[in-house]
Amino acid sequence: MYEDLLLKERWTLIQERLNSEGRIIAADLARELELSEDTIRRDLRGLAAQGLCVKVYGGALKVSPASGSLTERTASVPHRKAALAQAAVGLVSDGSTIFIDGGSTNQLVARFLPEAMNLRVVTNAPAIAIELGSRTNIDIILLGGRFDPHTGSCLGSRAVHELGLLRPDLTFLGACGLDAAAGVTAFSFDEADFKRGLCQVSRAIVVAATSEKLGTAAPFVITQASALAAIVVEGSARHDQIAPYTDLGIRILRAGKDQP
Amino acid sequence: MYEDLLLKERWTLIQERLNSEGRIIAADLARELELSEDTIRRDLRGLAAQGLCVKVYGGALKVSPASGSLTERTASVPHRKAALAQAAVGLVSDGSTIFIDGGSTNQLVARFLPEAMNLRVVTNAPAIAIELGSRTNIDIILLGGRFDPHTGSCLGSRAVHELGLLRPDLTFLGACGLDAAAGVTAFSFDEADFKRGLCQVSRAIVVAATSEKLGTAAPFVITQASALAAIVVEGSARHDQIAPYTDLGIRILRAGKDQP
DNA sequence: CCGCTTAAACGTGCATAATCGTGCATCATC
DNA sequence: GATGATGCACGATTATGCACGTTTAAGCGG
Predict the structure, then answer these.
(1) What is the mean pLDDT of the segment spanning B92-111?
(2) Confidence of residue B165 (pLDDT cuts 50, 70, 90)
(3) pLDDT of amino acid A199
């Protein structure tokens, strides 16, 4: 079935298997590909030399998220927003359709989406589409329209109109301000307009908010806070900052901790 | 069955096979086409030099969107493509509406658009929208739809449909192959389909082609060459490479020189 | 807990065959 | 006669498998 693979093809096969199963047993793979163990071990050593896997006795393991790829990806990025994003992606389930709104935090959400999941991602932010371009198991749908350089996303009437054709299971909403009384708010009219339409078609809405945004309000209202299914906050958020939302029955995820 | 293929035809065949099977084994193809392995390997090397495939020990593989699509291709021959782009932007006039198709060369066209001009730019490539985000006097309209990581642009039926609402004064068309007889061609069906629709609504079409692309044809036809208003070629292009197009009445712009 | 045994996994060196790159000759085409 | 495609010859590089001795992990009896 797998015979006569070119060297590099074998390498990608190994990487795929590492991503899906988390580990490789040299002897098993050698039997499966009808090659000598030596060859497989040479492959694993080569991949390990490039940091694409970790060589262990008997085979190889996927680079552990803690030490390897994730820290590398996180390195150049504001640590706090990355922590939010990593907590937020825990809400995504395999096979679902999610909408990722524009914004720097949400771009990190896209980056930290689990490699192994099959997803359909809809977004109005070109940067997010490009970010996800390398993921083979993610279908990317980009909403068009007038591009707003300030927010880095498409906001025009066309984008709003296209929303009507969607029904995402989960929406990561970008918010400029978040307050239990004032609701979710944005800086510009067009921005709020688009996000309002987005909220109407979404099955579940999540906002990831850094502590500065909690309790603040921008000029234009998107929706009331009670429409949110969950809010992702920083691990350091004070109790009085999040209490108003728990009172509304909104689930709170603290970054840097497992879910309650 | 396949004997007596011309060089360019063989390249097309290889590209088709790369698209459908994902890989080429040099020895197998040599036997099938009754050619020496040397010739096949020369072909693969040539295609790889253009970033159209990845040469590996024993054959070649399709470019993976992950590494190839835009980052690497833009970096591969920057000066040559940049020269093309700088010549191409000379065709743009102030106040007009232009369409910039996806592709590494066209991204450079966007970059070199004159700062002073007021323009409305329509594109299906997210990277181009972002590239132009910092220009305050350019209106950017992004076509949405399914995002194809391989070309770095939106190709789905939605994008084609949105084309109907446009009528750009000038279109920079991205081409995978350009031949006076075969016309403008693309690698994939969807790509060609979108570009075909684009050509129908455009008032004037321009293609910027590096010398390797001149005289080559990819599997899927977009339009005949006579539909082009102008072709931008490298300053080093030979006369016999461009003569067929001047015969068709197409304006030729040589990069690195002012217009004739 | 400790040392011993054993089989599996490992690294290294080497042989072999496939593949590669280069230089050169040939042939067709213009 | 110049250009470019093709095939061939040569040495260089690479992938693979096998043999060897070494290291590791795990079980076992004390």
Answers:
(1) 94
(2) confident
(3) 95
Q: Which bases in strand D are touched by protein, i.e. have an atom under 7 Å from a CB?
A: 4-9, 14-19, 24-25
Q: List the single residue in A8, A126, A127 with the smallest CB-CB distance to B56.
A: A8
Q: Give the CATH number of domain B73-254; options: 3.60.15.10, 3.40.50.1360, 3.40.640.10, 3.40.50.620.
A: 3.40.50.1360
Judge whether A139 is closer than 8 Å to chain B, CB to CB.
yes
Q: Are B229 and B206 contacting, i.e. CB atoms less than 8 angstroms apart?
A: yes
> CB of B46 within 8 Å of any CB in chain A?
no
Going from N- to C-terminal start, the domains of chain B cover 7-63, 73-254
Distance from CA of B182 to the nearest CA of A (A): 31
Instruction: For residue B158, list chain A residues with Cβ-Cβ distance below 8 A.
Output: 144, 162
- Mutate: best of A10, A124, A132, A142, partner B, most B CBs <10 A: A142
**B161 or A8: which carries more pLDDT confidence?**
A8
Predicted confidence band of residue A259 (pLDDT cuts 50, 70, 90):
very low
Residue with tokens 């060859």: A39
CATH classification for the domain delimited by A7-61, as one of 1.10.10, 1.25.40, 1.20.140, 3.40.30: 1.10.10
A102 CB within 8 Å of a chain B CB: no
Contact yes or no for B207/B175 (Cβ under 8 A): yes
Residue B139 forms contact with A (CB below 8 Å) = yes
Please, where are the H alpha helices in chain A?
7-21, 26-33, 37-49, 69-75, 79-88, 104-111, 126-131, 157-163, 189-201, 239-247
CA A3, B69, B226 angle in degrees (round to 5)? 110
